[in-house]
Amino acid sequence: MINQARLILKRVFGYDEFRPFQAEIIADVLNKKDVLVVMPTGGGKSLCYQIPALIFEGLTVVVSPLISLMKDQVAQLTQSGIGAAVLNSSLSPEQYRRNVGLVKQAKARLLYLAPEALLRSSMLDLLATVNVECLAIDEAHCISQWGHDFRPEYRRLVEARSHFPQAACMALTATATPRVREDIKTSLNLAAGSEFVASFNRENLFIQIVAKDHPVEQTIGFIQKFSDQSGIIYCYSRKQVEELNGVLRDKGFSVRPYHAGLSAVERSRNQEAFIRDDVQIIVATIAFGMGIDKPNVRFVVHFDLPKNIESYYQEIGRAGRDGLKSHCLLLFSYADVQKIKYFIDQKDSREKRVANIHLNALVGFVQSEVCRRIALLHYFGENYGSGKCNMCDNCLAREKEQLDITVHAQKFLSCVRRTGERFGGNHIIDVLRGSRAKKVLQFGHHKLSTYGIGADYSKKQWQQLARQFLNKGLMSQDMEFGGLKLTPKGWEVLRGDMPVGGQLEQEAAPRVNTPAKAGELNCDGRLFEILRKKRKQLADDSGVPPYVIFSDKTLVEMAAYFPQSTEGLMDIYGIGAVKLDRFGALFLDIIRRYCRENNISQRSRGSGNNPK
Ligand code: ADP
Ligand code: ZN
Predict the structure, then answer these.
(1) Cβ of 551 less than 6 Å from ligand 1
(2) Residues 56, 183: one domain?
(3) Which atom of ligand 1 is nearest to the CA of 76?
(4) Which atom of ligand 1 is closest in space to residue 547's alpha carbon?
(5) Which residue has the CA at smallest separation from atom 21 of ligand 1?
(6) Residue 611 placed within a domain
(7) Which of 197, 228, 252 is at the close of a domain?
(8) 427-456: per-residue pLDDT in tens?
(9) Residue 19 CA: which ligand 1 atom is closest?
(10) Which residues are CB-neighbours of 153 under 8 A, at least 6 positions away?
């Protein structure tokens, strides 16, 4: 049966290989075994029930909490020629009747339902007339009070199970914590054994964290590099969202805001515009993202600090679901830490303690100098073996030339000490640079021996140095007041017992390095644009998001391999038989014409232009 699954993978979905665990999970489901599937967002969970659904004689019921997600999946399946339907209250009576008909006549292989809809007696009656072979529970963490999105209706799903004793039960989630996993298994009565936990490493995400000194300029500088591409900018508050959205709009960016203060209509309009590629950027609070399946989000900016590592991971996880390289930029400042602390302090004592632990872990992650993936995956209980990903700022920084900055460190640390280890970085820098600032004079710091010994470097440069000293653990910063103190390691440096290597920046604007990753595909940008326009037109004609027609990766491959025939097209990522039939000729025409006009011929996969 697994061979049949492989065939469907290629014919229907247009993919050559299973991702880790997909084959095993599908085999278990086909053998009617219960499974718990834990995979990161974009990991490929849906395929794990969609493929068995096409092999089973009977029906697969998919429970999902969000109407928008269900609609999206049904649209995608329909485009691939798979019969799928949704039954919910948003349908008109005729549509509802029509979809019931599809289920009764076994024309729908998959039926998407909200949990409360599944438990209604009329629905159970309907399902009793068809053979339900698989019950797939998506976003299964909603069943757990320990998860981040508890939904009481999910608790009752165990009842639903008893109505379909023949059906395999699948629970799927992107929440990795063991506590939630246990909760899912016990609440759903899943048979022991089949648990698949995929790696949470998202290797196509470039992770970068920079000090937030001119956030608006930094953000603009960053997003300018992504012309015509989709991205999300997360802010802490509604006010900040509106402000930044206004600034970016005035600068001519294609942006829309999203936060809980907007009306439901406005929110869904903005979200829809983003999904359909009518708008490039969404500036949002964390209210945005749940239920967004858009695969071609190329960047996520954290304009403000996220609450904790788990939210950060969830939020950056919305980038690059299609597997193409995507950028995640976090602007970090201690002022933001204070802001979050302030809100934490309003909570009761137990909550406060937990929230503080999470915040401290996040700050530790931000300050750490090792590969970002080590720290991030460690949080999810995973060991990141290689220790160097080359897809994060720290890994790249290590490649850059290290200068001897021992003397700079000694000057700085000595100034920290002489001012009594209670001042923040900016004051220390003022003293080092010989500033006549009121605070300097008021404390008599212009009389210190370290006064003015750092005048040959700019404030910016010192700030950047200070960050490195913090990162290297030469000094620590008081979480509440921001005062700097020497650590034992700092003392060693001051005594001259330990050299310090690091960087001395000429400019402090954010560097957004785009390392050429081995195996990344070079494609013809002009052809890609032409194909993208065609895709948009087709999508608008049938009222679906563009990615439902073809993913970006599919277009990238077309614009890299220039297929000239139907066979050539079939080798392209994400083109199954139905899509080939529906759109193949249209795209082939464009590619052929482009190749004729530009004297280009088809390229093979082996010709040094290998996609991953
Ligand atoms: P999840 O539900 O885990 O967030 P999805 O099921 O939406 O992830 O899958 C993310 C993307 O990866 C989709 O575009 C999907 O078609 C694609 N995908 C899934 N499995 C494979 C595979 N084996 N090969 C290539 N692409 C895949
Ligand atoms: Zn790294």
Answers:
(1) yes
(2) yes
(3) 16
(4) 14
(5) 44
(6) no
(7) 197
(8) 999 999 999 999 999 999 999 999 999 988
(9) 23
(10) 114, 115, 116, 119
- Ligand with the closest atom to the CA of 387: 2
Identify whether residues 343 and 484 lie together within a single domain.
no
Determine whether the shortest distance from the Cβ of 314 to ligand 1 is under 6 A: no
Ligand nearest to the CA of 136: 1
Instruction: Please check whether residues 302 and 330 belong to one and the same domain.
Output: yes
- Residue 484 in 3-state DSSP? strand
Nearest-CA residue for ligand 1 atom 27 is: 44
Indicate whether 610 pLDDT > 80.
no
Q: Which bound ligand lies closest to the C-alpha atom of 393?
A: 2
29 and 155 share a domain?
yes
Ligand nearest the Cα of residue 515 is: 2
Please report, for the domain that includes residue 569, its CATH number: 1.10.150.80
Nearby residues for ligand 2 (ion, Cβ within 5 Å): 371, 389, 392, 395
pLDDT confidence band for 176 (50 / 70 / 90): low
Q: Hey, what amino acid is at 229?
A: Q
361 and 271 housed in the same domain? yes
| Helix 45-55 vs helix 2-11: crossing angle, to nearest 10 | 110
Cβ–ligand 1 contact at 294 (below 6 Å): no
In this prediction, residue 358 has a pLDDT band, given cuts at 50, 70 and 90, of confident
417 and 391 assigned to the same domain = no
**Per-residue pLDDT tens digits for 230-269:** 999 999 999 999 999 999 999 999 999 999 999 999 999 9
pLDDT at 386: 72
Q: Is the CB of 43 under 6 A from ligand 1?
A: yes
Binding site membership of 19 for ligand 1 (Cβ less than 6 Å): yes
Domain boundaries, position 471: 403-502
Residue 351 structure tokens: 């909550």
Which residue among 314, 318, 321 is best mutated to probe the pocket of ligand 1, counting the most ligand atoms within 8 A of its Cβ?
321
When divided into structural domains, the chain yields a total of 4
> What's the CA-to-centroid distance between 386 and ligand 2, angstroms?
9
- Determine, yes or no, domain membership for 51: yes
Across the chain, mean pLDDT equals 89
Q: Does 47 contact ligand 1 (Cβ within 6 A)?
A: yes
On the question of pLDDT at 550 being above 70, the answer is yes
Q: Where are the alpha helices (DSSP H) in 504-611?
A: 525-542, 546-549, 552-561, 566-570, 577-598
Residue 402: DSSP 8-state:
P
Question: φ and ψ at 15, to 5 degrees?
Answer: -105, 145
**Contact residues for 300 (Cβ-Cβ < 8 A; gap 6+):** 231, 232, 233, 234, 315, 316, 318, 319, 326, 327, 328, 329
18 lines ligand 1 (CB under 6 A): yes
Nearest-angstrom CA–CA distance, 35 and 192: 9
pLDDT at 506: 62
Whether the pLDDT of residue 507 is over 60: the answer is no
Q: Kindly indicate the confidence band of residue 280, based on its pLDDT and cuts at 50, 70 and 90.
A: very high
